[in-house]
Design a protein that fits this description.
Rossmann fold; eight-stranded mixed β-sheet; about 30% helix; globular
Length: about 210
Amino acid sequence: MTTGAGGAAPEAPVDWDAQAAVFDEEPDHGLRDPEVRAAWAERLRSWLPGRPSDVLDLGCGTGSLALLAAEQGHRVTGVDLSPAMAARARAKLAGRAAEILVGDAAAPPVGERRFDVVLVRHVLWALPAPERVLRHWRSLLRPAGRLVLVEGLWGSVTPVGIPAHRLTMLLEPLGGRLRTERLSDDALLWGKEVDDERYAVVATLP
């Protein structure tokens, strides 16, 4: 489950089951445009390990990023709160080394399993107690695992989201190395020019 159209944050609760049928119409959701898809694939390749790894995609929506990761040779577990979103993700990843679960991104139903990467796009900002959530996601990683967090700050009058400086501050107590990439300037990722703050933080943790 990600934010609304074009990455814009919803102003009211969204019925994600109802949105599932049209979710992929946004360029950065469905990745149907070859150039948009290639732009996300290139970024994902730079964020994920070069070897086949276990990737946990939280708030996976209809599975577009999960599919890219699977195509790059990774074993993917996707989690989304919406059964309709999860069903579309399962269909999209059919035949791949992937599993899609219905559950809460803040407390994914993965039991004692551990992963090389926790990948989350446009989800953390909407969760209560992000410090606690990040600690829990950290606990799902193997040693030298990575948190790959794609976030932003949307809107000018009453902006919503989480700015990059705050997210890096929240990550610092976890230790490890942090790398921040500005994504606002890459129109291909969004299928249009954007003027708000969009970024990714890759945290490689001990």
